[in-house]
Amino acid sequence: MALHMLRLCVGCDTIEDLLAYHQDTREPWLLHTRMSPKRADELLDGGSLYRIFKGMILCRQQILGVRTVGEHPNARCEITLDPEIIRVAPTPRRAFQGWRYFDPKDVPPDLDTSADGEIPMELARQLREAGAW
Prior knowledge:
By secondary structure, the protein is α+β, with helices and mostly antiparallel strands. It has one domain: Roll (Archaeosine Trna-guanine Transglycosylase, Chain: A, domain 4). The protein has helices at 15-21, 40-43, 121-129; strands spanning 4-8, 29-33, 48-53, 56-69, 76-81, 86-92, 99-102. Strands 1, 2, 3, 4, 5, 6 and 7 form a seven-stranded mixed beta sheet that branches. β3 and β4 form a beta hairpin. The radius of gyration is 15 Å and the shape is globular. The two termini are 26 Å apart. This is DUF1489 domain-containing protein. InterPro entries: UCP032025. It holds the Pfam family DUF1489.
């Protein structure tokens, strides 16, 4: 069963900010982090990185690879992400440092992008906080 990762999106307030940061890149994105996940095999079994913007989980990207670069005190982790961003139902989440594993039973559902009209993110956030969505 796939395991997911949860991480704050620092420096971007919206999904559009994140896309603008990577605007000319259609190649997989690299996410650099200090600690390598011990459960990398589970993340690679269909797992995604869920991103938190200003206290709300808003999107996810599929994890394509996890590798450790360097040795001992200079070791870092590179996580390769699919450039496709999948919007999810806005879900409140408190801030934390680093990243966390995210159990499949806790993940928010993907938003249907085939619908005729897309609900504004602020309205979706308010509905989610009120428990109506």
